[in-house]
Amino acid sequence: MSSRLSFLFLSATFAIVSSGCVTPQAQKMLNPDPASIQTSDRDVQLVLSTPVGTSLVDPGLITTQAAWIQLISRATRTIDWAGFYVASAAGESLEPVLQELSRAAARGVRVRFLLDKQMSGNDPQTLRFLERLPGAVVRLLDFNLIATGSHHAKYFVIDNQEVFIGSQNFDWRSLSHIHELGVRIGNPHIAGQLAFLFDMDFALARDRNDTLESNPPVLPRGPAVAIEVGVSPPQLAPDGIRPALPVLLEVIRSAKKELCIQLLRYSAHQGSETWDTLQEALLQAAARGVQIQLLISNWNTQLPEIGDLKVLIRHPNVAVRIASIPEVTGRFIPYARVIHSKYVVADEQTLWLGTTNWERGMFMASRNVDVVLRRVAIAKQAHGVFSKLWNSAYSVPLDVNKEYVPPRIR
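^ thats the sequence. predicted structure below, dont judge the formating
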């Protein structure tokens, strides 16, 4: 099915769900009272992964493993988990999470997993474990056939009340050997939006001509107060949730003093073609006096991406550092020992965080989910995470005269 047909199908589905034939209770969900969806700092919790053996631990933040176990243990009805792939290993840090999922399924919690079909061969044993959980359903979505990209989103919804969004893959390395940042949000409005998105994609994974499951959730419209979800790609964003790129551009363009950015990958190209939407937004911010600090992983040192970074630092008010995490002594771990977080702190007032690398295909062809939190306390916490890494021995200024050699990844 073409992308255009997929879009027409989804548009028709949204029209049915959001039509006038809704109950008064559902209508209230469509147009909630802003006072009822306030998100306090107590309802938002930053979640951090740090590579073992480094000095990047923040004792004030919960670890990813602990946060996931807590959320799963609290589930009473449903766990809907959207991911890129699964990967576990004997004796490693994902095993306690899998055990907690098993306990949840055993007590009657409905567990559903949605993963990228192209990555399904990554760890067949763990995939079979998930499929054999009592009452669990695992579906694989070939997003390449729908929008030429991948199902790269990483979020889950607990009881339609709490959500987790972050850069963390469902991978033992993301818990122990990669720098990751995520967020737990206890907000039924946001949970309702992501529950709708999950059901939409879960139906597509069964049959690309499918409709939403019976009794679909009502899609809450618009951002909650001080919080907003953004979704990629734009042609597959549900009505009522903005596409991710405009949401991110709004954060960049509204910055007045400072933008602190940490990414796995940044590119102003798609192949040999220029894609400078974000590059222009950053340079415009720098031109109006915003101090930009961009912390990028050493995986991003190949051409043409390293050239894009060198262009940035030739402008006033822009600093770029390359972060490298040392290997574990005597052991090489593939696809690990890297900074994988994707977040921006603007003026220590606003935090943008999500699953999207800053590349055209991530925004335009792949399923990703990001969130903007306009909460000062949370933004300051994230700024502390950024500053710790920026000022550490693991990051060094980008050298315009250096010929970089990308590290071994696998």
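The longest strand covers residues 178-186.
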